[in-house]
Amino acid sequence: MSLDVVGVLSGLAVRRPVFHSERDFQHALSWQIQLASPAAEIRQETRPKRGVHLDVLVDIGGTRTAIELKYLVAALRATVGTEPYDLPHQSANDISRHDVIKDITRIEAVLAAGYADKGYVLVLSNDRSYWRAPTRADTIDAAFRVHEGRLLHGNLAWAARAGNGTTKGRDVPLLLTGTYSCHWRDYSRIALASGDPAQFRYLLIDVAAGQLAYQGSPAHPIDERGNESPTRPEPLRRTISEPNAVASGTARAEILTAARKLADRSQDGSFALTEIIAQLKRAGTRYAESTIRTHVTSRMCADAPDHHGTTYDDFERLGGGRYRFRRTG
């Protein structure tokens, strides 16, 4: 038996048309799933592996479903029944869009590693700027737009003119291995304190279905702005921690290739961060030195503190600025 997320949301909208916070939304969704499937095993904020975080994990009859959710709201004051709601206006919509895409990559990685059988990214909002197409095509977050009808796939990054204040901690391009169509559905409609109505809508991305669609879809690819491109790249496969299973063209892929060459030439299989940087520069990498450093010392190092949504146990730190591939088994 699989989880019917759309059915769960239909039932939830009757009981809870609005939420106080994302955590409130997460808890209410989990409770509604339990009501719909009493035998379900539900866990929140799970960590199936170092660096891998999941908002909700549902196990129904052995089928595990991973859910990442976002609650993106504009200012709202209303009373539903006898319960008052006063929601703040969340600014930085461009960052929120980026983080929605990042959630998709997280679920893709979770499915690829076998931590779940199905996966969804769920976005609930009363801010119409998320589902309405932009009036300009050259916004700094054009690649991360999730408006109605948008197709998401490939390597997505900020526009070159995006400022450091926006991209800090989010400067690594996001690679999607599947293709996903953005379709917003009505969730609820409530009366504001002013008497005007507020519309909540939700975006549900079925990650497993998106990956299957990519493998078997006909040749009419869509670029980052939603326009057709003449050719479609081959599907890419990614795992969380296997050094040899990499997606060509990503920062991690380039670093792994350079590290493997350096390790093969080293007597003890070790290599220095400075050596990786130098080799990638000679190879003409498009990634900044800061990005390479962050990957080697943090994202790809098993000994590093967990500061990223998705990390990889590729390297272990030896000291003195040297690393080697992490030994398993």
How many β strands by DSSP?
A: 13
- Give the integer mean of the pLDDT values: 84
Going across the major beta sheet, what is the strand order? 1-2-3-6-10-9
Tally of contiguous helical segments: 8
The percent range for helix content is: 25-40%
Number of domains: 2
What gyration radius follows from the Cα positions, in whole Å? Answer: 21 Å
* Low-pLDDT segments, ≥5 res: 215-248
List the secondary-structure elements in sequence, H or E: HHEEEEEHEEHEEEHHEHHEE
The global form is globular
Our estimate of the beta-strand percent is 25-35%
Structural class: alpha+beta
Largest sheet: 6 strands, mixed
Kindly report how far apart the N and C termini lie.
35 Å
Description of the molecule:
By secondary structure, the chain is of the alpha+beta class. It has two domains: 5-216, no CATH class; 251-325, Arc Repressor Mutant, subunit A (Orthogonal Bundle), CATH 1.10.10. It has helices at 5-15, 22-36, 93-112, 164-167, 207-216, 251-265, 273-282, 289-299; strands spanning 41-49, 52-60, 63-72, 76-80, 83-87, 118-125, 151-156, 174-181, 184-191, 197-206, 270-272, 315-319, 322-325. The protein has a six-stranded mixed beta sheet with strand order 1-2-3-6-10-9, sandwiched between helices. The two termini are 35 Å apart. 34% of the residues are buried.
